Every structure is written in structure tokens, then in C-alpha cells.
Amino acid sequence: MKIDLNSDLGEGYGRWKGGDDEELMKVISSANVACGFHAGDAIIMTRTVEMAKQNGVAVGAHVGLPDLLGFGRVAMDIKPEDMQKHALYQLGALSAIAKVGGYKVTHANSHGALGAMSKANHAYVELMLDVFKAFDPELMVAGSVNTYGLSYARKIGLRTVGKIFADRNYDDDCHLITRKHPKALVTDLEEVRARITQFLDDGSITTLSGKRIKVDAKCVLVHSDTPGALTIARTVRETVEKGGGEIVPFTQLAD
């Protein structure tokens, strides 16, 4: 089995540094790069693209709310039509940086509270994906399993791959538990190893309540700001490879 190991990178700003991007780049196969709205800036974006190119890691635009203070994880009262323009702005900025650096943005997705906002109002994800396709019909989307956004991306003809999270717990609808929940994060390495082993064995994950759910996914994400992210990512990679699988960018896997 071929699996993409994905992470959100470039999540610093100015002199503030986010996760251990340099080391994570040696472990993962695709990166979602913050584009300056919830985190990141021109210098960080450029350096992140350079590191991705050096390590053969696929680069994607991680589009977030215009909310540096809340790191894009606080819902905003913003018109979907306005958010569409912010999404295009971010994708265009990263694409320009990548092009000048001799690399290419291959995928795009949303960050943080945009997911919950899109769940409540489908216009957010529809307009965002529409503008992604208008910008580049070859752009790919790694979407959370069992979401409207993933099905809409397929509907409009974008190449997609399903994504699960190694470091987050799920409810019985296969949606992520809110970060306000005390058990939202999965940081125990044995739990991570068990989740990935189960996923490789029968294509399922177990929810927080113990329910087993089948998922259509080929991408596993580790958040770079989760405590112990680098060790978690290494554990995922080790588990996949020991199970006879291979870590590759999802550009090789999207349907």
C-alpha cells in the first residue's frame, strides 16, 4: 500500500517559529504551507518551499481565515464570497513563490475553523474549491474523509484523496472531535501505531467511543503543532514501512 504522510508547515510569523519544519520535511511526503493569513509570511513561505523541493515533498496551499491572532482556529463572520477571494489571494501568493523557486503547488486545502464553517454553510467550501479549479484545473485536494468538501471536489472534477488524522480523535460520524475536548489530541505513540496498523490492515479507524468505521483514504496527516509531532510522524512512517507500505506524495495517489 502507498500512503501519503502529510503535515501543515510554515506556521510561524516574522521572528516567531512554528513546528520543527526542517526535520519534519525529512519524514513527510507532502506539506500544506500556511500562506500568510492564519500564519506564515513571504520569507517563511519561500524557505518552506525550498525545503520541500530539497526533500522531494509535494507543496500545497493551506488556505486559512484572515486571523493571525486566532491562528485561523476561531470562526469568523465573513461572507463566503469574500472568503473565496482571500483563498485565491493565498493560493496565488504561494504559487508565485514556488514558480520562481522552480517548484509547483500541486494541491490546496483549508485550515482550521474554515472546516467547521464549511460544514455549517457549504458555500464556503464550494466557492473555495471553485476558485481552486479556476486557478488550476490540475490542482489536487486532500480532504477529510466523510465530508461534503471531498465529495464536492470530486463532483467538479478535481482529483482527490481521502485524508485521516494520526493525532486527532473522531466522533461516531467520522468527524474530528472539537479541540476544546480534553481528548481531542492523540499523542500517545502506541495509540498512533495502533490506529495506523488498523488502517493499513482493514481500512478502518476507531472513534473515541470505540466505534469502528471504514474510511476511503490514502493520506495520513500529522499537525506540526501537536506536542511531539516529529516523533508522531516518524512513528507513522515506521508503522507504514514495517507493514510493507510505502510513503509517497499523494500526487501519485489522487483519483
Structural class of the helix and strand makeup?
A: alpha/beta
How do the helices and strands follow one another from N- to C-terminus? Answer: EHEHEHEHHEHEHEEEHE
Shape: globular
Unreliable stretches (pLDDT < 50, length at least 5) are none
Helix share bin: 25-40%
Query: What's the gyration radius in Å?
Result: 17 Å
Compute the average pLDDT: 96
Terminal Cα span = 15 Å
Count of DSSP strands: 10
Biggest sheet overview? 8 strands, parallel
How much of the sequence lies in strands comes to 15-25%
How many alpha or pi helices?
8
Q: What does this protein look like?
A:
By secondary structure, this protein is α/β, with parallel strands linked by helices. The protein is 38% helix and 20% strand. It has helices spanning 21-24, 42-55, 80-100, 113-120, 122-135, 148-155, 189-202, 229-242, and strands at residues 2-9, 30-34, 58-63, 105-110, 140-144, 159-165, 204-206, 212-214, 219-223, 246-247. Strands 1, 2, 3, 4, 5, 6, 9 and 10 form an 8-stranded parallel sheet that branches. It has a two-stranded antiparallel ribbon with strand order 7-8. The chain is globular. It starts with a strand and ends in an 8-residue tail after the last strand. The mean pLDDT is 96.
